[in-house]
Design goal:
Oligomer: single chain
Length: 75
């Protein structure tokens, strides 16, 4: 009797798993961009708590809408 799960594994499944793990690797530039985005967000919230109505929104939008997405998609 043949056991379930015991058999020849296809190379297509293995290649799909390798492809997925390759797509999640981040470069050093990605980490720098993420750090800059995180710093911009922290400084933006700090300025917002002090009452800044010009610099805080600019930093928050730059952090959330530009730097963090660039860090995710940059290679």
């Amino acid at each position: 009797m043949k056991e379930v799960g015991k058999g020849k594994k296809s190379s297509a499944g293995r290649k799909a798993r390798e492809t997925r793990s390759d797509s999640l690797r981040f470069s050093a530039r990605s980490y720098w961009l993420f750090g800059a985005g995180f710093a911009a967000i922290v400084v933006g919230y700090a300025l917002l708590s002090r009452g800044s109505i010009t610099a805080a929104p600019i930093l928050l939008v730059a952090g959330y809408c530009a730097l963090v997405p660039l860090a995710i998609f940059a290679r």
